[in-house]
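TASK: fixed-backbone design
INPUT:
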């Protein structure tokens, strides 16, 4: 447990020390992402294309791979376990947390895929264009808020 706590403390210290630079880099990336999203024109990607199906095992493995390689998943689990006070000796508590996360994730994926499957044929390139515009504006708002927060923090420290 001490090794884990030390590792989390070390990572937290590095992130806190570099928060200004990370905020600026993150803000710049969000601005770029907002611009690319806002100006994206739906084309061939918006059209229905027949792809060979890999079946349920292929779908499961690709989703599992995407989830496990997402750093936010790992950090979220670390924060969840730390926040709930689950330690190395409390295997029953850890199993309940993992079961809860599994059931929640499964429910989310079922709802999401059912909704997408239902609406897939109704979403036209025009709708995708509108979604891109709104998404670009929302991402740009987050980037602006991040930049304003970082600027405010910088002026308070000087």
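OUTPUT:
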């Amino acid at each position: 447990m001490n090794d884990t706590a030390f590792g989390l403390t070390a990572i937290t210290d590095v992130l806190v020390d570099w928060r200004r630079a990370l905020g600026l880099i993150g803000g710049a990336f969000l601005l770029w992402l907002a611009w690319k999203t806002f100006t994206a024109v739906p084309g061939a990607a918006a059209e229905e294309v027949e792809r060979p199906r890999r079946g349920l095992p292929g779908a499961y493995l690709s989703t599992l791979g995407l989830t496990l390689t997402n750093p936010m998943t790992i950090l979220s689990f670390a924060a969840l376990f730390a926040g709930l006070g689950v330690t190395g000796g409390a295997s029953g508590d850890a199993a309940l947390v993992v079961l809860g996360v599994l059931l929640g994730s499964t429910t989310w994926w079922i709802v999401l895929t059912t909704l997408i499957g239902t609406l897939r044929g109704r979403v036209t390139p025009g709708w995708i264009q509108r979604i891109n515009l709104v998404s670009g504006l929302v991402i740009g708002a987050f980037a602006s808020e991040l930049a304003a927060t970082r600027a405010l923090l910088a002026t308070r420290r000087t």
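COMMENT: The mean pLDDT is 77.
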